[in-house]
Design brief:
Rossmann fold; 15% strand; 12 helices; alpha/beta; globular; 8 strands; 43% helix; single chain; 8-stranded mixed sheet
């Protein structure tokens, strides 16, 4: 498979932290810019196949969330609310006009948070196997004994030494490749370049602390709560071979709470933008170009 090189990035200072981003393509006065947001453990590199194609028709931006990719990795609390404000401030400071936000997994949830809280900065939302629970799928309260056991287990795993050991285990190339093999339908898409792009940020100072902090972070607003506040056009792209979520069930939940959406199911896993980029790029392009006529 022909390798697509990553795009050179720049840095923006946000709350005294260096935020890495990529910008490609010229501004188009008749269409909105795109802002691409990666998932957990990924970075702007994960969008390289999409940036390469979409930059001919759009001004394209991609950003590393605080704690990920080439962005700073401070030891602090991480949450959807934090990334919501990061994305909102980036749109205002760097892009300068409403953008179409496209997010995969955790990045999709962050995009929803922005669209719900700051609709004036969002021209549309594209979700690719987006994360986040719905209210009716949240676990019922556990018994006091179960809560105690769960808290003790979490405290043990996320205490400094066990957490560090777990991080050292999952950052290995063999483990990254094994995980990707579970969540990609097309195994040929799992290249040494992809494995290295996911592994590299683990070398940065603070990466282990971020790994622990993200799992300690409180659960954010349910997706249905966010959808109730949202008024922007919505496109759902589902890699239906995703082993981490029942895409048909999640799609039904989205339709229930936000019926005015467009959706497509693709023969891919958790990261369809990287696995079937030609299909994703075509669907994104057509949908965004159609926003002006709706």
């Amino acid at each position: 498979m022909h390798a697509t090189p990553a795009f050179a990035g720049q840095y923006w200072q946000w709350q005294d932290h260096a935020i890495h981003y990529v910008q490609a393509g010229a501004p188009q006065p008749d269409r909105p810019p795109l802002l691409l947001v990666h998932g957990f453990g990924a970075s702007t590199d994960h969008w390289r196949k999409n940036i390469a194609a979409l930059q001919t028709d759009f001004e394209v931006w991609a950003i590393d969330l605080l704690g990920f990719g080439r962005s700073a990795k401070p030891d602090r609390a991480y949450s959807g609310a934090l990334w919501r404000e990061q994305l909102h401030d980036f749109i205002q400071a760097k892009i300068g006009r409403p953008a179409v936000l496209a997010g995969n997994s955790l990045g999709g949830y962050a995009c929803l948070c922005v669209a719900a809280a700051h609709p004036e900065t969002v021209a549309g939302v594209i979700l690719l196997n987006s994360a986040g629970p719905f209210t009716d799928t949240l676990s019922p309260p556990a018994s006091p004994v179960r809560r105690f056991v769960a808290k003790m287990t979490q405290a043990l795993l996320l205490s400094p030494l066990p957490s560090w050991l777990l991080f050292q285990y999952v950052r290995q190339r063999s483990m990254i490749r094994r995980t990707l093999a579970k969540v990609y339908v097309d195994q040929t898409a799992i290249t040494p370049q992809l494995v290295e792009e996911i592994r590299r940020p683990a070398d940065d100072p603070g990466a282990a602390a971020v790994f622990a902090a993200v799992f300690k972070s409180p659960q954010g607003d349910p997706v249905d709560t966010l959808l109730a506040q949202m008024k922007t056009p919505l496109l759902l792209l589902w890699g239906e071979g995703d082993p981490w979520m029942d895409t048909r069930q999640r799609h039904a939940a989205f339709i229930k709470h936000y019926p005015a959406l467009e959706a497509h199911f693709l023969a891919a896993g958790h990261c369809p933008h990287d696995e079937v980029p030609e299909q994703v790029n075509s669907l994104m392009r057509d949908w965004v170009l159609g926003l002006g006529s709706t």
